[in-house]
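Standup notes, structure subgroup. Blocker cleared on the MU-OXO-diiron input:
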Amino acid sequence: MLISADVNTALNEQIGHEFAASVQYVAIAAHFDCEGLPQLARHFYRQAVEERDHAMRFVKYIVDADGRVEIPAIPAPRARFASAEDAVQLSLENEMTVTKQINALMDLAIKRNDHITRNFLEWFINEQLEEVSSMDTLLRMIRRAGEKGLLFVESYLAQHRKVHDDAPPVEQES
Ligand code: FEO
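Run returned:
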């Protein structure tokens, strides 16, 4: 086994955190869907898929390192939100928590001189910067628009997605 028992345990806990984030985003997306805000719903359904992908990266890594995958119980997500701001504020707080969890994992890998895990975690360190930053931007936008101005946020997300979808594909190195 390429990783120590305590690193293996911490990685398994993180699988749980990533799946928990995924189901929380599904709950938030469904809330927006029910509120007639399809772009916000789509945004969070996509986030949910990303979090599942994060969990699967940890699963694959543990398997590759010849460790043991033990997925913990996933807590029920919060399902009721007082406002769009409330839901996105929760999302930002969750991303900040995940950032701390990834940092703690990195601290453990460094303490164990586990350079393979450290290298694996680098991707997540960069990803958290992007996720916290984009969630913070969305929260600021929602605060500025107010509950009555959420259609502006919908319009922004639709436009942003169109620009993103129309962008030329990134060239692959040969
Ligand atoms: Fe997997 Fe958004 O952290």
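Discussed briefly. The longest helix spans residues 115-145.
Next: hand off to the docking folks.
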